[in-house]
Specification:
Helix content: 25-40%
Oligomer: single chain
Shape: globular
Radius of gyration: 21 Å
Distance between the termini: 6 Å
CATH class of the largest domain: Alpha Beta
CATH superfamily of the largest domain: Glycogen Phosphorylase B
Order of helices and strands: EHEEHEEHEHEEHEHEHEHEHEHHH
Largest sheet: 7 strands, parallel
């Protein structure tokens, strides 16, 4: 049997590597622990993110085609599964981020050493589609012997078998090391997707806040992310309509690495998730990133956010522009009470290094001991 630190971990993700933080940091800290890493991911035409060390990437090309989007997604996933089949002898442990059809992999992968990773339930607006896709998810993951999942609440909602589950929570890096000043200015940061997020409500609320408080201290609002063309157009049009182009800056899509300077400059972060049944149990990645980087977090009061936000690290609001405005007033009035160290310490156990060393590495050791 090889030592754990020489074991080969193969990830397959239906996204481009580096544009969601989790897998980047799984790989970063597993490499530091001495693992060899292989990543199969989709090439979406974005700039490739690299890591130093014993890591190999296989990008599945997204070829231009006239077929409809549904068939196109199927084609890309079949190509990913084909590559996984070709590499089935290269891995000691296989981590597969869930997508519809992932259970096909069990036709050729060792079940005892394959883990399906569920980062979210279905978040489609249609209740019928959500029910159908969540039912498909339950059927597919039933076939796996091990399941990574974000939280106990999500596993209960999806009605997954508890004896298969390893809780692998979301986390973050400490993306800003410096102590922050929360008093002399309010520099807001929103980073993430625009799809189904209603970021226009944040702009409405901020515009009202800016009008009332702009003479009292400097204010700014940086928006980073991506979504459908109509979502991005709506945000740009609203900024223009309020004549706030010098105050609210729309940056568009940036890699995780290229977003880091904004965590340095900004001191308040926005984790704005609609309060719906399908988002309620989903812990937002950005809540962790803001808090562990010392930003005061203004978050909608989903059940997941209620378990993370405290008096020390932020404030909760409803998913309306008026409630967001009042949340901004709350942090303005409390701005002298915030402490960078207290904010960061409130979610210490959600640092990526802690999660990889204490949960993921431990799970891998148990699997390798049992089935080596």
């Amino acid at each position: 049997m090889r030592g754990f630190q020489n074991s080969n971990i193969l990830f397959m993700i239906p996204d481009q590597f580096g544009y969601s933080a989790g897998y980047y940091y799984y790989c970063k800290y597993l490499l530091l622990l001495g693992y060899n890493i292989t990543v199969i991911c989709v090439d979406k035409g974005l700039k490739k993110v690299e890591l130093d060390g014993a890591i190999t990437f296989y990008y599945i090309q997204q070829e231009r085609t006239r077929i409809n989007k549904f068939l196109y997604v199927i084609l890309v996933r079949l190509k990913s599964l084909k590559k996984l089949y070709n590499l089935k002898n290269k891995g000691d442990i296989f981590i597969l981020k869930y997508f519809e059809g992932v259970s096909i992999s069990l036709l050729f992968l060792p079940r005892n050493r394959t883990i399906v990773d569920i980062r979210t339930g279905t978040v489609r607006k249609s209740k019928t589609i959500r029910i159908l896709l969540n039912q498909l998810l339950r059927v597919e993951v039933f076939l796996f012997k091990k399941i990574f999942i974000l939280s106990k609440e999500l596993s209960q909602k999806l009605k997954l078998a508890s004896d298969k589950i390893i809780y692998l929570p979301l986390g973050s890096e400490e993306l800003s090391k410096e102590a922050k000043n929360y008093c002399s200015s309010i520099n807001l940061l929103y980073i993430g997707t625009f799809s189904y997020r209603n970021i226009d409500q944040c702009i409405d609320g901020f515009a009202k806040f800016y009008k009332k408080y702009k003479a009292l201290l400097p204010l700014s609002f940086d928006i980073i992310g991506f979504g459908k063309l109509q979502d991005e157009a709506k945000i740009k049009e609203l900024i223009y309509a309020y004549n706030l182009s010098d105050v609210i800056v729309f940056h568009g899509k940036k890699t995780h690495v290229n977003s880091l300077p904004f965590f340095q400059r900004c001191n308040y972060g926005i984790s704005y998730i609609p309060i719906t049944d399908y988002f309620n149990l989903q812990p937002p990645t950005k809540t962790f990133e803001y808090i562990l980087s010392g930003l005061v977090c203004i978050a909608t009061q989903t059940k997941a956010n209620q378990e993370l936000i405290t008096e020390k690290n932020g404030v909760l609001c409803e998913d309306t522009s008026e409630s967001f405005f009042h949340a901004l007033e709350t942090v303005y009035n409390k701005r002298f009470s915030y402490s960078t160290d207290a904010i960061k310490d409130s979610l210490y156990s959600h640092k990526w290094e802690y999660i990889v060393r204490n949960i993921m590495h431990k799970a891998f050791k148990e699997i390798l001991l049992q089935y080596s």
